[in-house]
Amino acid sequence: MTDFASLLLPDRGQPAHPIHLVDKATFESWLGIQPQRHRVAVEAQRLRPTSYASAILPGERPGDWSVVTVVANVDDLSPWCLARLAETLPEGTYRVEGKEPGKAMLGWMTGQYRFERYHEEAGKAGPRVLLTGEPARIDAMVRLAEATAQVRDLVNTPAGDHGPAELEAAVKALSVERGATLTVTSGESLSKGYPMIHAVGKAAAPGREPRLIELEWGDAAHPRIAIVGKGVCFDTGGLDIKTGSSMKLMKKDMGGAAHALALAGLIMAEKLPVRLHLLIPAVENSVSGEAFRPGDVLQTRKGLTVENTNTDAEGRLILGDALTKAGEGEPELILDFATLTGAARVALGPDLPATFANDDPLAAALLKAADEESDPLWRMPLWDGYDEMLKSDIADMVNAPEGGFAGAVTAALFLRRFVPDTVQWAHLDVFAWRPNAKPGRPKGGDAYGLRAAFAMLKQRYGG
User: Fold this and answer.
1) pLDDT in tens, 228-274
2) pLDDT at position 462, please?
């Protein structure tokens, strides 16, 4: 992983290239007071007041140069306003002129993220270091960057190198680092206690058996919360097999687990006063003679029966058993993350996680944190009128209604059946993948809603 801690340093007056910030409103006035050499450089580089545009400004000596960049609002810096500079400037040390970078420290670091596991030339780009006069914020910003990078690394790693066993190893590493308790239930032992997890994962090859990975941490006297993440390490679609174009990105179907693991790491690093229960059902939805079939009726940990109408709607099945187990601990709050439905992406695209909650104050707290962190969420309805779409002629419910209407909503309603009525619960249907690069956010695996969820938890529990 990128050494993010080396990219932010306390400003003690050390030599650094200045970064001048302008926006559309201040561009002309700033330019009007610049020396002739700067105005010539701006014109030569055709700098215009458009977001992320920048120009190098020559100094009086060869190495004494600075840079000007255009941001949306110089008085309210976004996390990403310096990210393109971090991606493109020469290696060296930089200082924002006249103000603190604040939230922009995040994009400065994540803009230098690289997934280089399979590149021969890995690690050869030099760092761009940003100075800050707020050294107390450095550790927290570094942790956010590291959590984001962890999600990216886990999602970017191909399934051939990252199956249920490797996901278990990642949780184990965190448990060892933070002194947490790890419990893993795997293989045939799932068949009675977690029958849906077992059914979905039993077709996988030896060594890639399904498992429920649990981590517990914190003082039992503190409020209990559960974080659940969908861990489908590869999704063929099962016997309802996906087409090649739909299958090629299915290494990312454990993106919910990656978010849950990263959030758990942030909670423990921050030492939030909670009793944390992390649950990751980890499977590979494979095709073999052991694969579960369309039309099978599945038992569940909760006791409900589910008619399996689509083997490619497997994520909600494994989450159902995990949510049931989470509820047995009587938490006051459950958050789950899942790359659950294409319907959410059709409705909202990749940038907006469809967010469902059974509690209005919880939903409001998440949306408020999302706005403050520039980590957007979009609330969707748990519309009771669509609950009847889950009816089955032969079982308590189906996993995937026919017709495709309101697919993200009916998936969330399915999950709701496994959450105790007395527990506050939010479900984030995330994409976990960035189809097109943006400053600070390269193409590939990415975290959505992670910072918003963590900020909400900090505000709620006084971290």
Assistant:
1) 999 999 999 999 999 999 999 999 999 999 999 999 999 999 999 99
2) 86
Q: Quick one: 378 exposed, middle or buried, by C-beta within 10 A (0-12, 13-18, 19+)?
A: middle
Nearby residues of 367 by Cβ (< 8 Å), 6 or more positions away: 355, 377, 379
- How far apart are the C-alpha atoms of 397 and 318, rounded to whole Å? 15
Specify the length of the chain in residues.
Answer: 463
- For the whole model, what pTM was predicted? 0.97
What confidence score (pLDDT) does residue 122 get? 65
The pLDDT score that the predictor gives to residue 187 is 96
307, 395 Cβ separation under 8 angstroms: yes
Phi, psi of 104 (to 5 degrees): -65, -15
Q: Is 385 exposed, middle or buried (0-12, 13-18, 19+ CB in 10 A)?
A: exposed
Residue 451 C-beta-side C-alpha neighbours within 13 Å: 23
Q: Judge whether residue 313 has pLDDT over 70.
A: yes
Q: How many CA atoms lie within 13 A of 21 on its CB side?
A: 19
pLDDT at position 463, please? 57
The span from the CA of 114 to the CA of 168, in Å, is 24
User: Does residue 252 contact residue 158 with C-beta atoms inside 8 Å?
Assistant: no
295 class by beta-carbon count within 10 Å (0-12 exposed, 13-18 middle, 19+ buried):
exposed
Query: Phi and psi of 160, rounded to 5°?
Result: -60, -25
Number of H helices, E strands in the chain: 15, 20
pLDDT tens digits, 406-425: 999 999 999 999 999 999 99
- For residue 123, name the pLDDT band (cuts at 50, 70, 90): low
**CA–CA distances in Å: residue 408 to residues 191, 237, 241:** 28, 17, 20
Give dist(CA 161, CA 203) in Å, integer. Answer: 18
Active site residues: 242, 316
What are the structural domains of the chain? 4-133 (3.40.220.10), 144-461 (3.40.630.10)
